[in-house]
Every structure is written in C-alpha cells, then in structure tokens.
Design goal:
Strands 2, 3, 5, 6, 7, 9 and 10 form a seven-stranded antiparallel beta sheet that branches. This protein is of the alpha+beta class. Helices cover 30% and strands 20% of the residues.
Length: 307
C-alpha cells in the first residue's frame, strides 16, 4: 500500500513538472503579450502561405513544445504584420536543435536497435543511437479526430490543415507524434525542436506515407509507432513483439509487451498500405526550404519587438 502511494505521488510530481516546464516555455514564447489562440478560424481575406515557405520568408515563427514522444503543442507566431493563413503539410518531421547549433537528424531513419531507458523498454539488443533525443513524425489533420479540434471554423473544402493568425498573435495547435529513432531519449519541454519536411528528413517513401497516414488522424498511435520503427530502425515484427516495458520501475517480473499481436498485425497492414501509396505517388523533389542545415528565422515575440 505504501509503495503504491509512493508511485502515485511520484507520478503526480512528474506530471506537475511537465506542466510547469510547458508553462515556462509558453511564457517565454508569448512574453507579456496575449495568450496563444486555441480556437482557430479561417480568414478568407488573409494572405495564404505554405508552412515552410512562411518560415523561410520570416513571416512565421514556429516553436515546438514536445511533452514526450507521443505529442505536445506547436506555437505559430505571425511575424508578417498582417493576417496570415497557414497551410500545414500532411506530415512533418520534428528534429531537435542541439545547443551547439547542430540538428539531431539521422537521415533515412537510422538503423539502431538500442534500448530506450527513459521508457523502460527492453529485450532488443543493440547499442542505441548517440547525439540528442528522438526525432518525431507528426501531422496536423489528426487534430480533428482526437476529440479536440480547437473549434476550428474552417469552411467546407478548405481542409483542417488551414487556419489564419492575426498579426502579432500566436496560434497553439496540439499534435500527436511517433518516435522516429528507437533507443534515443524521450523529448521534453526543455528541448528545442524545429519542423522539417518529411521528404527532407528521410528519403524512405514508405516511411513518408506511414507518417502521412498517421497524420491524417483516426489511426491508433501504437500501431503507427510499430510501423514507424519497422521502417526507421529495421526492426522485424518479431523484434517489435519482444519489446517490453516495466509497469513497475525496475521490477523484471512486471514487464509486459508494448505491442499486442493485433496491433502488430494492424501495423503490417499499415506498412502494406503505405507501400502501395508510395508506389502510386508521383515523384516529388525534396523541398529545399527548412532543410536540417538551414537556419530558421530567429524567434522574437511581439512584445519583445515593441520594446
């Protein structure tokens, strides 16, 4: 009973710490200005720009606050001085920006079968990748399928990946994600992440389609995670079936598989579907903007610019 109380107290403290870190990030993001917009609308009079084109033009600044490998929030600040409609891609990769200025981006997904100690995963041998935390794969269409679509007032035919931001305002958009580097540490709100085109992050077209399908919503995240690791880290379905997690920290007898047989079957079907779609998709050159080596326009809040 005492140990159960200690575990619950520890979980509450961990949850409170994540919430505090996220709040600090948001405070730094918006400064003393208005709070982020969570109810997003469409302004038909606003100029329309694709996400990465807007970033490269300095019209939009983006900050990602990843709570963990499963998701977080993206904050979009309109720096253009006029209303701006942002067109989000179906899928993006989110890569960590290291303090030295280098991007944690393992092209083509990597090949490590390391152990993710932060998540208590085990039973797959290997050394683990070095250099930074996990990269993430995500999309924004899913926000209309997770029970909280932020009240988006989007006209029929426009699509859930469009929204408008008034000048000098910040829009907050939640995201769900899958890990693209098995064995690396989990993201946290203290880490700095930036979005890059999924086509730039990896040339694996099956992985690209897998993240796009997940990004559209309606997909079990655990299923998508198994499919992603199958592509990025070349884990066989037997390898994935052997990965376990601790339900009680450090207690070997408490280990349970993280993927059920039904989830792995669904993941195989997802990879088959993604493979078919990859063959049918026309060849597209990787986008030149916002590549892992590119410099994102410096982030300055509206309140800081006024001082």
């Amino acid at each position: 009973m005492i140990s159960q109380f200690v575990r619950r107290a520890g979980a509450r403290r961990a949850g409170l710490l994540v919430a505090c870190l996220a709040m600090i990030c948001v405070t730094q993001l918006v400064g003393a200005g208005k709070s982020p917009m969570r109810i997003l609308k469409y302004d038909p009079t606003a100029a329309k720009m694709e996400l990465f084109a807007a970033i490269d033009a300095g019209a939009l600044s983006v900050r990602i606050v990843a709570h963990d490998s499963e998701g977080g929030n993206v904050y979009f600040e309109n720096l253009s001085g006029k209303p701006l409609t942002v067109n989000l891609p179906e899928a993006v990769a989110m890569v960590q920006v290291l303090k030295q200025g280098f991007f944690n981006n393992n092209q083509n997904g990597g090949n490590s079968n390391g152990v993710n100690g932060n998540s208590g995963l085990s039973n797959v041998s290997g050394g683990g990748q070095q250099g930074g935390a996990q990269s993430l794969g995500s999309g924004f269409g899913q926000q209309s399928n997770n029970g909280n679509n932020n009240g988006n007032n989007i006209p029929q035919g426009i699509g859930n990946n469009f929204f408008s931001i008034p000048p000098e305002r910040v829009a907050q958009v939640p995201f769900k994600s899958v890990c693209l580097n098995y064995g690396k540490p989990d993201p946290s709100p203290r880490m700095t992440y930036k979005p890059v085109p999924i086509e730039t992050y990896s040339q694996d077209q099956v992985l690209q389609e897998t993240v796009r399908i997940f990004g559209r919503g309606g997909m079990d995240r655990t299923v998508a995670q198994a499919a992603a690791w199958h592509q990025t880290d070349k884990l066989s379905w037997n390898d994935l079936a052997s990965i376990k997690k601790y339900t009680l920290p450090g207690v070997y007898s408490s280990q349970v598989p993280i993927f059920s047989m039904s989830q792995l079957k669904a993941a195989q079907e997802l990879v088959t579907k993604a493979t078919k779609q990859a063959k049918e998709r026309p060849e597209v050159e990787p986008k030149s903007n916002s590549t892992p080596g590119a410099v994102t326009p410096s982030y300055t809040t509206a309140s800081a610019r006024k001082t």
